[in-house]
Amino acid sequence: MNCNEAATLVAAYADGEIVGRRGDLLQKHLLGCAGCATQYQSVLALRARLRAEIPYFPASPALHTRVRAMLGATGAALPSRPRPSIDGWRWLTGGALAGCAATVLAWVLGTAVIDWRTNEDLAVDAVATHVRATLGNHLIEVASSDRHTVKPWLSARLDYSPPVQDLANEGFALTGGRVDTLERRPIATLVYRYRQHTIDVFVRPESAHAAPALRTVRGFNVAHASGSGMDWLAVSDVSADILSPFVQRLARAEAAP
Ligand SMILES: [Zn+2]
């Protein structure tokens, strides 16, 4: 076996896919060739790094459902009657199906990673915006506990009109609102007071990707909920067991009179 052949097989060999006589030949080549051995070691090292450094998240029920649905759709696309002829054809069909499924799976996983990245950036961006507003003392651009004041003020500055509720009787007093920029787009921010804490709630029209319900960024809790056609993202130093139900309550938006 020469270096060119070895180079095409090294990655598969590292995955345990090259066995039998070819595996023996490759192993022999690696023992005698420093260049190919280095390449093999770097594949192993990369694999170890990926395992160690890429964060692991259990798949959400929504992702489970999506993968199942897509794999189901792939299965349905198969010819219902098996090809009559030689076994070889079945192998081919099986291989093609496995390839399809692998592609679908890779695509879904890729999308999940992008979703994760997007949500991570969004949470970090939201916390940075919250901190900037608090430190820079421009928490509130329209100061009012009256939703009939805050809502039109926001609608006049945005291309959507977020639902606004005062939940003072539940301990969350609306103190005002402002317009921020999140992910390079203007966004409505509702400002609430809960005991000594300030809660910023970013509200924008619902997007396609599902954000995780709760994250912690630099000690701040970021709670997400979807509802009333909007995405709701609450940021505060209030504890998660208070923030999460609050943002879900807003998303339900049972309109107050
Ligand atoms: Zn070599």
How is this structure best described in words?
Strand 6 (220-227) and strand 7 (230-236) form a beta hairpin. This protein starts with a helix and ends in a 5-residue tail after the last helix. Strands 1-2-3-4-7-6-5 form a seven-stranded antiparallel β-sheet, sandwiched between helices. The mean pLDDT is 83. Helix 2 packs across helix 3. The chain has 257 residues and is an alpha+beta fold. The protein is built from seven helices and seven strands, in the order H-H-H-H-H-E-H-E-E-E-E-E-E-H. Bound molecules: zinc ion. Zinc ion (ZN) is lined by residues 3, 6, 29, 33, 35-36. Zinc ion binds at residues 3, 6, 29, 33, 35-36.
Short synopsis of the structure:
The chain is of the alpha+beta class and about 260 residues long. The protein is built from seven helices and seven strands, in the order αααααβαββββββα.
Which terms summarize this structure?
single chain; 257 residues; alpha+beta; seven-stranded antiparallel sheet; 7 helices; 7 strands; 51% helix; binds zinc ion
In the predicted model, the low-confidence regions spanning at least 5 consecutive residues are none
- Strand order, largest beta sheet: 1-2-3-4-7-6-5
**Beta-strand percentage?**
15-25%
Structural class: alpha+beta
Proportion of residues in helical segments? 40-55%
The total strand number stands at 7
Mean pLDDT: 83
State the end-to-end CA separation.
80 Å
Overall, the morphology is elongated
Work out the radius of gyration.
27 Å
Order of helices and strands: HHHHHEHEEEEEEH
Number of helices: 7
Bound molecules: zinc ion
Q: State the major sheet.
A: 7 strands, antiparallel
Oligomer: single chain
